[in-house]
């Protein structure tokens, strides 16, 4: 049979290079756009303190009481007035004591000392405390050696937080430490944001549920369990929206239903511009799609759009790209919509334990971990290598420009924890 005389496409010498003439948006520009355009979408409710940990403050919280509320002693010992000069000092000890929760009712006259226990309010006349380990107690007197500054071993009222001062700002996601602070300054309940409901939908005819039989050409849906867990760990309410086939009508029904149930829809797969990329196609048809060709590896095509007034984050199907795009793009965007404000992950510079040459034109994130104070990179950059995500403790971020990294050179490491994981 004669074959048609058609030429193969010119061999692409550099098939991973960015397409010529196409505008790839730098990561920072894409982030700035999201930051500019998104706003808080969650309502407000009151939560008792016990239920408030992990929630986001809806308004500034002012201290209702100073911490400490009154001057008190920082140690067990003896309290008296004034300072003590260099040299020995002997003071008569009064009857009674001041303990935490049991203030001393009387006044301590100048030249006398009183037994005081840690946390006790300083009685009238007491300004300074000497540690019990530093005194000899005999014949109703204490003897110790100066010098001792006035106010030694005591805590001033409000030295930590003054009544009426800002204890915690709006947008703060409450930590265990914040529970202590809010309690100490007298709050029993706080005004918090309602949880941002984030729906997670997988797309692709090839996907089957973990646990089901997988035929040839089928793969287990890895993204949905990962994304649901990411959403929860970052601090939002994850809603499982299931899977949609690569079929526009089916996907459209899924999105309609999702838009009623959640504040934000996160999809994975079908976000590029190919024949089976129905997420981007549908959003484009709906007239509310912005294809984000981001200069980012792994990642690149993101389909951001609105479906029935609900924002849709169309992530790439590749699990590695899906996770990186979630951490880099979705997380700050979701945080902003949730009322937490834009969250920049904090990284730090560490010596690289690897070598890498990188071309200019896009930012790269490597799966990495810290061992012996150095950043190791996963042995493969393949974006299908899910095991590398588990192997890693975080990401190494390599800026948009060209870079030649040699072992020992400083690279920026961002631990997973800095993304809220
Ligand atoms: P797509 O963006 O739909 O072209 O998908 C890109 C690659 O990611 C393909 O190899 C898909 O099979 C794979 N993929 C898409 N969705 C998932 C998923 N939920 N779990 C695992 N792999 C996926
Ligand atoms: Mg697909």
From TrEMBL:
PROSITE patterns: MOCF_BIOSYNTHESIS_2. GO terms for molecular function: metal ion binding; molybdopterin molybdotransferase activity. It is an enzyme of class 2 (transferase). Pfam families: MoCF_biosynth, MoeA_C, MoeA_N. Its cofactor is Mg(2+). Pathway: Cofactor biosynthesis; molybdopterin biosynthesis. Catalyzes the insertion of molybdate into adenylated molybdopterin with the concomitant release of AMP. This is Molybdopterin molybdenumtransferase. It comes from Ruegeria halocynthiae. The lineage of its organism: Bacteria, Pseudomonadati, Pseudomonadota, Alphaproteobacteria, Rhodobacterales.
């Amino acid at each position: 049979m004669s074959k048609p005389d058609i030429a193969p496409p010119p061999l692409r010498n550099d098939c991973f290079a960015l397409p010529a003439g196409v505008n790839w948006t730098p990561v920072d520009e894409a982030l700035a756009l999201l930051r500019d355009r998104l706003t808080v979408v969650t309502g407000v409710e009151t939560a008792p303190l016990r239920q408030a940990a992990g929630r986001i403050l809806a308004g500034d919280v002012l201290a209702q009481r100073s911490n400490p509320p009154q001057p008190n002693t920082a140690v067990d010992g003896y309290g008296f007035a004034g300072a003590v000069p260099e040299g020995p000092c002997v003071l008569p000890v009064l009857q009674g004591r001041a303990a935490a929760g049991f203030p001393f009712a009387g006044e301590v006259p100048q030249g006398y000392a009183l037994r005081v226990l840690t946390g006790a309010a300083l009685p009238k006349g007491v300004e300074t405390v000497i540690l019990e380990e530093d005194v000899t107690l005999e014949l109703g007197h204490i003897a110790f050696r100066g010098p001792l500054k006035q106010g030694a071993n005591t805590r001033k009222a409000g030295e930590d937080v003054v009544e009426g001062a800002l204890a915690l700002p709006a947008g703060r996601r409450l930590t265990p430490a914040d529970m202590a602070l809010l309690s100490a300054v007298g709050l029993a309940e706080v005004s918090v944001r309602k949880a941002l409901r984030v729906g997670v939908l997988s797309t692709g005819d090839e996907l089957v549920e973990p646990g089901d039989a997988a035929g040839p050409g089928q793969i287990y849906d890895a993204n949905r369990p990962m994304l649901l867990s990411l959403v929860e760990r970052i601090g939002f309410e994850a809603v499982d929206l299931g899977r949609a086939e690569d079929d526009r009508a089916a996907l459209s029904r899924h999105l309609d239903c999702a838009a009623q149930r959640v504040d934000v829809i996160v999809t994975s797969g079908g976000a590029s511009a190919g024949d089976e990329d129905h997420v981007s196609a549908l959003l484009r048809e709906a007239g509310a799609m912005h294809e984000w060709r981001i200069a980012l590896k792994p990642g690149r095509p993101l389909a951001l759009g609105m479906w029935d007034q609900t924002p849709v984050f169309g992530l790439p199907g590749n699990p590695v790209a899906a996770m990186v795009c979630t951490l880099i793009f979705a997380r700050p965007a979701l945080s902003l919509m949730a009322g937490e404000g834009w969250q920049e992950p904090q990284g730090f510079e560490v010596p690289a334990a690897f070598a890498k040459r990188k071309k200019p034109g896009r930012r790269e994130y490597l799966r990495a971990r810290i061992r012996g104070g150095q950043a190791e990179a996963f042995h493969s950059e393949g974006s299908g290598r899910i095991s590398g995500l588990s192997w890693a403790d975080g990401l190494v971020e390599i800026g948009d420009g060209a870079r030649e990294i040699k072992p020992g050179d400083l690279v920026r490491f961002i631990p997973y924890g800095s993304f809220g994981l």
